[in-house]
Amino acid sequence: GHPDKLSDQVSDSVLDACLKEDPLSKVACETAVKDNMVMIFGEITTKAKLDYDKIVRGAVRNIGFDKYEDSLTSVLSKGISADTCEVLVRINKQSPDIAGGVHVGKDEMDVGAGDR
Q1: Least CB-packed of 15, 53, 57, 78 within 10 Å?
Q2: Is the pLDDT of residue 116 over 50?
Q3: Element (H or E) spanning 7, and its range?
């Protein structure tokens, strides 16, 4: 699978987890994948209590990435393993400047870009 497709599914899994517990969540989450490492980063404001490591590994596992060997000649390696990958989380709350620009004090129909 292509890293962009994996990244999209991981970010979508984080979004889904936020909205499941808090439908008013504000989520701007990106994902990068490289050499048995997944990093999620961005700004999220939610009341949901999330286990980001579990969400990331679950998404990677559901796609079928379950084998990593650090060898360019390996025919078994899938490039990433849900069980052994490094998961980096760099998530902050949404900045007040962005919140004011896209949703705070605005009508539902007037919400701007920047929130997914």
Answers
A1: 53
A2: no
A3: helix 3-21
